[in-house]
Amino acid sequence: MFVYNLKINGSKTFKYFFIGIVILVIIIIGIVSFKVFHGASNSHENSSCLPQNKVTKLSTANYTNILKTVHENIDDYVGVQINFTGYVYRVLDLTENQFVLARDMIISSDFQSVVVGFLCECENAKDFEDDTWVELTGKIIKSDYHGDMPIVKVTEMKKVDKPSEEFVYPPDESYIPTSGVL
């Protein structure tokens, strides 16, 4: 049987271990600092879930994610053009050229729903009755309706048939708030 006797000089071993730990910590701090500062410089480019230079089509799958993101970060989406389908929904305190382009969002397993949507402004809004399904294209502006509110200034609107998927669902786990630098 072989027995190994390893003699460790405590002061040298501690010095090497301590120097190794310090070097490792400096490397980690350097990497984290680079990612933080590099990420901060690119955050404005990457934080948008809507492209800035084209018309974005909202679908049943992305509707509530985009609705929530735009409401939380209005300034980031001013000027963005969107296209989506919904039904005309009015409440008492809207002007005659305003309506909500609404969808029903399922909030429970027994199919209870709430109305969600974008407030829209259109010169010929009164030509479309409540509960009429329409497809519209418009540009997001920032206005005031019980506080800051994104409003879609309609550029094109046409009557359509009720879609086969009329309900939307709450924002899913892919929703990432863009109000802070990630």
Structure commentary:
The structure is a single chain. The chain is of the alpha/beta class and 182 residues long. The chain folds into 2 domains: 7-47; 55-168, Beta Barrel (OB fold (Dihydrolipoamide Acetyltransferase, E2P)), CATH 2.40.50. Helix content is 28%, strand content 31%. The protein contains 3 helices and 7 strands. The chain has helices at residues 10-46, 63-72, 74-77; strands at residues 55-57, 81-89, 98-106, 113-121, 133-144, 148-159, 167-168. It has a 5-stranded mixed β-barrel with strand order 2-3-4-6-5. A hairpin with an 8-residue loop joins strand 2 and strand 3 (98-106). It is elongated.
CATH topology of the largest domain: OB fold (Dihydrolipoamide Acetyltransferase, E2P)
- Extended strand count: 7
Strand content: 25-35%
The major sheet is characterized as: 5 strands, mixed, barrel
Number of domains: 2
Weakly predicted, low-confidence segments: 42-48, 178-182
Strand order of the largest sheet: 2-3-4-6-5
Mean pLDDT: 81
What characteristic shape results from the CA principal axes?
A: elongated
- Helix % is 25-40%
Q: What keyword list fits this structure?
A:
182 residues, elongated, 3 helices, 7 strands, OB fold (Dihydrolipoamide Acetyltransferase, E2P), alpha/beta, 2 domains, disordered C terminus, 31% strand, single chain, 28% helix, 5-stranded mixed β-barrel
Summarize the structure.
The chain is α/β, with parallel strands linked by helices and 182 residues long.
Q: Topology of this protein?
A:
Blueprint: H1 10-46, E1 55-57, H2 63-72, H3 74-77, E2 81-89, E3 98-106, E4 113-121, E5 133-144, E6 148-159, E7 167-168
